[in-house]
Amino acid sequence: MTSSTPGFPLPGPPLPDPATGAPEVDPNAPERHGPLSFDGIRELDSNPPRIWTVIYITTFIACLWVLVAYPSIPFLSHGGDSSRVGLLGWSSRAALVADAGRAAAHEPSIQGRFERASYTEIEADPALRGYAVAAATSAFATHCAACHGREGRGNIGFPNLADRDWLWGGTPEAIEHSLQVGIRWPDHEPTRLSQMPAFGRMGMLQRPQILDMVQHVWSLSGMPHDAAAATRAAPVFAENCTSCHGERGEGNQELGAPNLTDQIWLYGNSQQAVFTSIHAARAGVMPVFGARLGTDAIRKLVVYVRSFGGGE
Amino acid sequence: MAQQPRRRFVDLHGRIERRALVFVFAILGVCSVGGLVEIAPLFAIENTVEPVRGMRPYTPLELAGRAIYLREGCYGCHSQQIRPFRDEVERYGAYSLAAESAFDHPFQWGSKRTGPDLARIGGRYSDEWHVRHLMNPREVVPASIMPPYAFLARAPLDPQVYARHVLTNRRLGVPYSDEQVANAAADMLTQANPDADGAGFLARYPGAAQRAFDASARPTEMTALVAYMQMLGTLAQFDWRQPDPAMLR
Question: Which of A51, A276, B7, B125 is 20 to 30 A from A93, comparing alpha carbons?
Fold first, then answer.
C-alpha cells in the first residue's frame, strides 16, 4: 500500500491518520502527508542538528587542506624526496632527521664527555658509566639478549657475559672488537675466525680415543674422571690440542680457544656434550654489529656488558 | 509549494533521489572518489618507488622460505615495515624503503606487532639462534609467546614444487630472467650447500649468502625460512641520518 507508506511525501491532499481520523502534517515538511506514525513511532523529516552539518563540511575543507599542504598526490612525487610535493614542504624523512636532531640537542653534555673518555675513565666515573648503561639497555635487549639473555647470563652455546671466562677476551677493547667484526660471521673479511677440527668426523681420532679424551678434559678442570683413560689421552692431547688450548688446557683468547681448566662449560659437561665437542667441533657465531649499530652505541654496549660484573 | 529556507539541503537531496538518472550519476561521482584515491596512485608507482641499488629478486630458496612464512601466518604477529619515526629506527634500524617490498607479492608490511618487526632481522642473530628459536622459542627467549615451529626441520623442502614459485612471481611482474627460472630448483639446492659450486648461482643472485642455514643434510622448510629471514633488510642498508644519495640509482 504505497499511499500509506510512512515517510514518503506523496502528491495530493493530506491523508487522515488512521488512529485519529485527522490529517497528520509534518511541521518540517508540510508537503508530506499520510500517516506519519506506525506502531506508535512518529517519523518526521527533520534536518540533522546544525553541529553535525558544520562538522561534516569542516571535515571536507580539512581534507582539501591536507591534500595540498602535505605530500599526497603521487603524480608530483620524485622518488623518496616528497618535500616538494606539499605546500608545507614536509617530508617524513626530513621530520625524522629533525626529530633526531632535537633529541641530540637535548642530550646532556655528558655525551660529549663520554665520546672523549677512555674506557678506564668511563668505568671510574659513576656518572659516565651510568649514562652508558642507561643508553645501551634497549640496544642490548634488541640485539644481544636474544642469545645472551636479558641479564647476560647466556645459554647453552651462547656465552655467559656475567662471568670472568672470556673466549675472545674480556677487556673493553677486546669486547669492542668482537662487537665490531663479529665472530665467524660468514662472508665478512675481518671477522674473528677460528675453527676447531672435527676430530671424530674427519677421522683424526677414533671413537675410543675420543672417549679417553673426554676423561682427560674432565681431569683438566678437576672433575671426577677415569685416571687411566685420562693418562692414555695425555699424549694425544699434547699432539692435537695444545697448539690452541695451551699445554695445561688454559685456552688462548687470540684463537677463541676456550679455557678447559675452569668449571665453565659453554656446551655442557656431560659425556655426550664433551664427546660431541671433540667429535664434531663447535663454532659459535656472533653477528657483525659495527655497521648496524655504529661505534658510539657499541662503546656504550661494552660498558653495559662489563656492568654485569664480568670482564677482565 | 512554499519552501522553508532551512530545508534547502534536505530538499536538494529529495529532488536528486526522485530523478533516477541524476541519482545514478551522483552515485557514480561519489564512488569514483574512492576509486581515484585507491587506484590512481598505482599509475604513479614509478614516481613513488625510488630505485635502490643492490635490490634483487629473492633467490629460489629465499622465495620458498617466504612462501613458508606466508603459509604459517607469520604476518599475523610480525610486521615488515619500519616507519620513519625515531623510536622505530633506533630499535629496528633504518626505515623501510618502498623498493624493499617491490618484489613482494603480496607485501608483508602489516601493522600488528605481537612480535617484533622483521624488516631488518637479517644478520641480527646467528643461523643457529634462528633454528633453536623456531624449534622452541622459549629456550632462548623465556618470555616469548610464539608457538614452536619444530616441524619445519622435519619437513623436507621439495625443490621442484618451490621452484615453480619463481615462475609464478615472474608472471606477477618480478624480473626473473629465463636463466633464473630454468635453474630455480638447482639454485635452491646450491644455496643451502656450502660445498656446492656456487659460481653460477652467485652470478644469477649477486651477493646472496651460500651456506648451510641449519644443520640438516638436505634442505628442509627450516633451511628455507632461515635463509629468507637472514636476507630480510640486508640488501639496502643505509644510515637514516644521512641517506647516501649514491644508494639511489
Answer: B125
Average pLDDT over residues A170-190: 91
Are the Cβ atoms of B95 and A100 closer than 8 angstroms? Answer: no
- B89 part of contact set with chain A, CB < 8 Å: yes
Tell me if A200 is assigned to some domain.
no
Residue A153 placed within a domain = yes
Q: Which three cell numbers stand for residue B144?
A: 616469548
**According to the model, what pLDDT value does residue A16 have?**
62
Domain shared by A153 and A184, yes or no: yes
Q: Is B136 on the interface with A (CB under 8 A)?
A: no
Q: Is B177 exposed, middle or buried (0-12, 13-18, 19+ CB in 10 A)?
A: exposed
CATH number at residue A154: 1.10.760.10
Q: Residues A48, A52, A53, A59: is their CA dihedral positive or negative?
A: negative
| List of domains in chain B | 5-48 (no CATH), 60-247 (1.10.760.10)
Q: How many distinct structural domains can be found in chain A? A: 3
Residues A99-141 have pLDDT tens digits of: 998 888 877 788 889 999 999 999 999 999 999 999 999 999 9
Please, what sign has the CA dihedral across residues B2, B5, B11, B12? positive
A216 and A95 within one domain: no
Does the pLDDT value for residue A168 go beyond 80? yes
Tell whether A40 is covered by a domain: no
Tell me if B140 and A155 make a contact (CB, 8 A cut-off). Answer: yes
**CB-closest option in A30, A45, A143 to B10:** A45
Q: Is B129 on the interface with A (CB under 8 A)?
A: yes
Range of the domain at A271: 207-280
- Mutation target to probe the B interface, by most B beta carbons within 10 A, among A75, A151, A156 is A75
Least confident piece of the model among A69-73, A169-173, A258-262? A69-73
Residue B41: per-residue pLDDT:
83
In this structure, are A125 and A174 located in the same domain?
Answer: yes
Q: Which residues of B touch A78 (CB under 8 A)?
A: 47
The Cβ of residue A285 has, within 10 Å, a number of other Cβ atoms equal to: 17
Interface of B with A in 169-208 (CB under 8 A): none
- Given a cut of 60, whether residue B196 has pLDDT beyond it is yes
- Residue B65 and residue B225 in contact, taking contact as beta carbons nearer than 8 Å: yes
Q: Is the ipTM of this complex over 0.95?
A: no
Which tens digit of pLDDT belongs to each residue from A217-229? 999 999 999 999 9
Q: Could you report the per-residue pLDDT of B171-193, keeping only the tens digit for each?
A: 999 999 999 999 999 999 999 99
| B248 touching A (Cβ < 8 Å) | yes
| Mean pLDDT taken over chain A | 87
User: What is d(CA A109, CA A94) in angstroms, rounded to the nearest whole number?
Assistant: 25
Cell numbers found for residue A252 = 688462548
Q: Are B188 and B60 in contact (CB under 8 A)?
A: yes
Domain identity same for A124 and A148: yes
Q: How far is CA B58 from CA B117, B180, B193, B231, in A?
A: 19, 11, 17, 9
